[in-house]
Amino acid sequence: MRLAGPRSRSAARAAEPSRSGGDRLRRRVAGRGREAPGPDRGRRRRARFPRHRGGGPDAALPYGDRGRPAMIIREIIVAGVGRFASPTRLAGFTPGLNVLSAPNEAGKSTLFRALRTCLFQRHTSDTADIRNIATGDAALPVEITVAFSLDGRDYVLSKSFLRSRSALLTRDGADYARGAQADETVWELLGLKPAPGRGQMDTNSFGILWVEQSRSFEPPQPSDGARDTLTSIIASEVGTLVGGERARAVLDTVSAALAERETQRGPRAGGPLRAAIDEAARLRGEEADLIARRAELETEFDALARLRSEFDRLRDPRLEAELRTNRDDARAARNAAQAAAAELRTREIEVQAAQERFARAEERLNAARDARKRFDEAEARLEALDREVVTAQEQAMLAEERSHAALDALAVADEALTQAEEALRRHNLAVEAAQAASRLAGWLARRDELKSLTNRIAEIEAALAKTLATPERLAAARALQDRIVALEARLDAQAGRMEIRLQPEGASAVAVDGEAIADGFTKALRGPTRVSVAGIGEIAITPPEAGAAQERELAEARRELTAALDAMGSASIAAATDAIDGARALRMEAEGLRRRIDAIGAEFGRGDPVVALDQRIAVAQAAVSAAGLDAAPEAGDRDALEERRREAASARSVAETAKTKASEDRIVAQTNLASLRSRLDEQRERVGNAREDAQSVAGEDALALRAQEREAAAQDLEALRRAFHELSEATPDADEIALAEARVERLEQALDNLRRDLDRTEHDIRSREEIVRRLGADGLDERLARVAQERAMAERELARAQRATDALRLLRDEITASLAEGRARFIAPVMENLRPYLGALFPGAVLDIGDDFKPARLTRATVDEAFDHLSDGTREQIAILVRLALGAMLAKKGRPAPIILDDALVFSDDARIETMFDALSRAAQLQQVIVLTCRSRAFAPIGGASLRIEPA
Fold first, then answer.
1. Backbone angles phi, psi at 940, to 5 degrees
2. CA–CA dist 196, 200 (Å, integer)
3. pLDDT digits (tens, 9 = 90+) for 630-678
4. Which of 79, 656, 797, 875 is geometrically suited to a Cys-Cys bond with 87, CB 3.0 to 4.6 A?
5. Are 772 and 376 in contact (CB under 8 A)?
6. Could you tell me which of 225, 230, 248 has the C-alpha nearest to residue 820?
7. Among 194, 22, 224, 19, which Cα is nearest to 122's?
8. Which residue would you say has higher pLDDT here, 637 or 329?
9. Domains of the chain by range and CATH?
10. Three-state secondary-structure class, residue 152
11. Rounded to the nearest 5 degrees, what angle is found at the Cα of 384, between the Cα atoms of 382 and 385?
């Protein structure tokens, strides 16, 4: 018995990151179908991916025997990738043509990006491409496993990104490399070179044979590595026609040397030609500067003499004294004007306060007069309301008398109508008694049917009342179940794992949490666990409580699910679903029964049809049993009775109308009287309140007092206005004050200007003296002669550099022209592999391909068309055919790689798409071809093996 864990590995592997989700996916691929330990255990695991050494069903693939061997993808497993939160497998691969046909958003492109990420990205990378394929749940790592065959061996590469980062490569079921070594070992197997630092991986031939979604319209764009691979293959056949690699090496050397000297816009910055040009220009500028400085020296002497004369003028003390005297006089005048203006503003504020006091006094006087007026009007309205109430009382008594008379007349008419209707009713009963016997049997049968239908509906409603499950409760329970599944997956992804592998002699000797195990055992460590070994001891494992909050959330979700199922009276969600389906069937049956009841009830009018039938049956039975008539009643008797009833009804209608009119008049009179009495009470209350206010506010004494207050306020206001006017006549206005301020500022500025002019002139004199000393003491003439000599030497060096550049340019052009003459023969191997594909799709057409392996022009029936001017569908088809040709050339030279097309051929018509299917089938004879598409119907004729997405 041994416990598998990071500490049980060798010292070198103990330094690797602990295994988590990546190891779990690896075990799903390499250890699926694990049996009891034994000597054949490893052999059974390797049988998962059969080797291809030339025999068996894959022997028809003519892969090259030399160079790099064929690569065959066998299986892809992902978890935490895009929509695949739980482990999901893409299976069913064969060495030939493989097709994954699935609807939009099934995850095809996600699996393609996962394949590229696993093979070409370091497991420690944290790029935007990796984050973009991660599942939205940030707690899950990105786990990708790719199984492939290479050189007759089976490899499984498992990587975990972003969280619990790890990488493991197995070969034939045994660990082969881990961590960074696993990344680089896979690249070495595939012939790839890792990019320096964090640069983008050069995917070599994979980059031109693996076409991403919406990129199939673009022609192949080989990377540097892919271009070198293709060029080396072609150069092995036609390189000597144009000087071979030596000519290209010379061209590269000349181009590099020329590139150091110039660009398309001119000399290159930092190159020897630009350096010679810049040095000559610098020395010419320096020589010109020295000549200018010699002329500048003479100019400085003249300027210095002028500055000294100006300084003597500004330093005269009489000029500053005059300016100070004028400034002090201006300040005194300004201060006096400002004091007078402040006094005037104080008087203005007093006038405004007096105006407000006058306005308040006048307002109080007007308010008292208005109160007096309102009181007089209220008393007049009270007297008018008294008169209206008396008149309304008389009208109400008269209306009451007319109402009583109308009621008496209506009672007489009602009695006459009742007698006429009773006579007509007795006649009708006699007529119905004669007809009831023939209808009684049918009514009895209908009543029995209705009772049977009603009883069945009652049974259904009783059964529905016992059904507690509802769609809303079921939806809530399902949401809880989904939440529990997500929480368990998140906890399993975050928790460590314990794996126990037993030797045959250790069977049943180990127990986990009291439960004996007979074979291997794997458990997510989400809580304390005890491992007991019989006869040895016990191991207690207590993992960190990092997920305690999520465990509590999981327990709470399970309790809520149990409560939800109890509320529906169901043991499971499936039982609740069955209960809801049964209730739905019962409701449909009850609805059909009710429609039958409605159909029967329509024959008997509105209301309950059973009650109506019972009534008719009772009436018929009573009529039949009580019918003691010797003969049926005459029709003429009914007409006379009907005429008598109509006359009585008409007389009653007239009496009813008169009674209604009298009643309405009585109600109107009583309402009017009540309204007038209410208004009279309100008016009396208002008059009482107004009388008290009028005595205190609007009495004669109060009015006289308010008038005296207003007169006193008016006199104060007039006196203050006269004082303000007299003071304003003697106070300077704002313009005069502003003029005084401006004079003070002008004189202060003149003093400041005088001091600044003195400082500036003195500074200028010192600066000019320094310039003169510098220009006259540094050997200006000797420096000018030396710079002139250096400038002549620089111009000779510039001429030499220009001649060397012209020679390199001529050599480059000659070699380029020589290489261009052999381009057609250089590209011949590509055209040889392209010709079968192109001839099938475009018979007789010729495709021009450039040195960069990109289609340039298509010639059909002597008509040349630029590749960029072709339709989208034609460009896509040609681009795919060129990729197939390059893949065929690589395969024939022993460097085959799988071809992968993601949602290609989207604009192909029916005829061309069939031809493209033939081309893909032909390519699949040389290498593995994988087609991803969402167009199941259009791609049905393509054949090949069908890939499938399934839980891992």
1. -60, -35
2. 8
3. 455 555 567 777 787 788 788 778 878 877 887 888 788 778 878 877 8
4. 79
5. no
6. 248
7. 194
8. 329
9. 2-90+105-201 (3.40.50.300), 471-579 (no CATH)
10. coil
11. 65
